[in-house]
Amino acid sequence: MANDAWYTNGKLLVEQQSLDLTAATSKLILVTTGYTFSQSHDFVADLGATELTVVGYVRKTNGTDFNLALSSDETATPDTLRYTVDQAVTWSALAAGETIGALSLISDTGNDATSPLIAHFGQSAGIPTNGGDITAPFDVVNGNLTIEVPVAA
Prior knowledge:
Layout: E1 4-6, H1 8-15, E2 26-32, E3 60-61, E4 68-73, E5 80-85, E6 90-91, E7 99-107, E8 117-128, E9 134-135, E10 145-150
Antiparallel strand pairs: 1-8, 2-3, 2-7, 4-5, 5-10, 6-9, 7-8
């Protein structure tokens, strides 16, 4: 995916290991092309009204809809924690009417005002919904979604 980036607060929470991204509270959400990425956005509420709303859309949940696995690379300098989604993630039968501009990884607290944004995976071109399935275009060979976090010594 093009234009991938951390949200500043999300990266800090992961680096400090304040969040367990492998927990069921980790979710993937789709946002429209109306969203303008800013690393300073902290919470899902900062996305405004840009999360998809078409019929058929639901947030995808770790452990149910995808698996976010943790591994470590002690050969890297500095040591690196690697979170990887190792399967395609599909949203089925999304009704027509919106254009997907990005996917975001969040930690869902049950309240968008306190649910941290972790990472942003933007599209170089929007993907219109048309009643069909949308599959996140991740790298299936190397692990679909990979987030690497240096571990402080």
